[in-house]
Amino acid sequence: MFENVKIIRNTEVKSGYFLMEFESKSMLSMLPGQFMSLSAPGEMGQDMPLRRPFSVYRFNSGVTEILYKVAGRGTELFSRLRTGDVISCFGPKGNPFPIKEEGKSVLLGRGVGIACLALLGSALHENGKSVVTIASFKDDSSDLINEYIRGFSNVTRTIYDEDGTSSVENVARLINEISPSIIYTCGSKRLARMLKDMPYEAYVSLEEHMGCCGLGSCYTCVVKNNDGEYIRSCKEGPCFNVREVDI
Prior knowledge:
Layout: E1 2-14, E2 17-23, E3 35-39, H1 42-46, E4 52-54, E5 58-60, E6 63-69, H2 73-78, E7 86-93, E8 104-110, H3 113-126, E9 130-137, H4 147-152, E10 155-160, H5 168-178, E11 182-186, H6 189-196, E12 201-205, E13 222-224, E14 230-232, E15 239-241
Parallel strand pairs: 8-9, 8-11, 9-10, 11-12
Antiparallel strand pairs: 1-2, 1-7, 2-6, 3-4, 3-7, 5-6, 12-15, 13-14
């Protein structure tokens, strides 16, 4: 569904990271793991002809929140949006994460990938499920853990590149100590590949470049499945079993 929405706030919450807020009736039906695509208005939109995909970070009293990192031309343009600006929103799109009825869930996020998992963590917590959040960052300056994430997490483990705790070996050790029923990951293909070799059910949300963002016609977001066939992140994904795709 296409919808024009008005920006309530678009605030830099940490250097290079912005929280965008707007009201949207259609986005309130989004399931954890699905995404929307956004385009900017007027002259700004002319500088960004392709839509950009975003996941929902949180639903807060009917307001949709998106947490994003300025990483290229598109997100830099979005960071310029101010209160009252109108953007075009298309969604919800894609397939959500599967939810396991019993056992302990691990959210394994790298960088702003933790924002893609936050709505899932909130939903799991609201349904009385145990959630362990493992969040990997370069250093404290990019650490996005806050009271919202701690609120839905039974346990939060923050690991960094600068002290070596974010190494694959250490992440694997932490996961084995937890022995979860299911793992969800986003933000690092290296960590997703690691999960392929571990004895746990695991799913990844792939952050592939999308041309038309959800229409499924341009095939710019394809990945290979185990049969060597190309599948689209925007239509068949973005959430996949880690053992079913070539990461």
